[in-house]
Amino acid sequence: MAGIWRFLGAVVVSLALVGGGSVAAFAQEREQILVFAASSLKDVLEDAGAVFDQTHNTDTEFSFGGTQTITRHVVAGAPADLLVTADDAWMEYAVRNGVLVDDSVVELASNGLVLVGSQELDAMPVELEPEALQAALANGRLAMGEPETVPAGRYGKDALINLGLWESVAQRVAPVENVRIALAAAARGEVPLALVYASDAQVEQGVRVLAKIPQDSHDPIVIPGALTSVHSKSGVEFLEFLKSAEGQEIFRVHGFKVSGD
């Protein structure tokens, strides 16, 4: 029996030596970070979280949804460390409701809009003219975020109005809860056209870009992030990481524009 205890003691000492510190430090639990974020940011934030966790004692988790939905959840008291939205209007709503740390709101990146169609169905490029758009739709519909509540839908409607295209498609719009639903519908060929973020088109191999929406046809599409009033210390560090050169490069790789582009 004494031999077993000596063996176990040796294992403990070995673990302490390998870890370069105490057994308590070796066994320290990883701190959880919870980020509420817009669906359009799923790929970039999951990649950023994985990179961050490699060099920190953290497990970064995400709750994705429509910007309007996740913001309302945070306002209602959801225990998130960070809020990252697809536009600044909903971030301002959270600010007005007093659930964010004062002066913590920061612009992380920006985005653009594109029209996409199914890669499998060999969708062809579309000119941004009423007749061409109607011809491309044929008997189908244009999937896009709900214009009254979803940021991508609001930006999209403004762009179509300013380009003189809204009246030609208004009755053919299929409004959806978030832009990723519109993207998936186009990829599956359920709709001939979808209006989505440029970054979405880059990550979905099932679609091809049929037209780029001019940047000056809508307000700038800003991606803001902020700390909530119940944030952890690691939440502060993750927001700083997203603002760093390494974090910004991850946004750039995923098709977003960052400061300096």
Automatic annotation (TrEMBL):
Organism of origin: Pseudovibrio japonicus
Transmembrane segments: none
Database matches in SUPFAM superfamilies: Periplasmic binding protein-like II
Entry keywords, A to Z: Metal-binding, Signal
Family to which this protein belongs: Belongs to the bacterial solute-binding protein ModA family.
Highest taxon listed in the record's lineage: Bacteria
Protein name as catalogued: Molybdate ABC transporter substrate-binding protein
Gene3D superfamilies, alphabetized: Periplasmic binding protein-like II (3.40.190.10)
One Pfam family linked to the record: SBP_bac_11
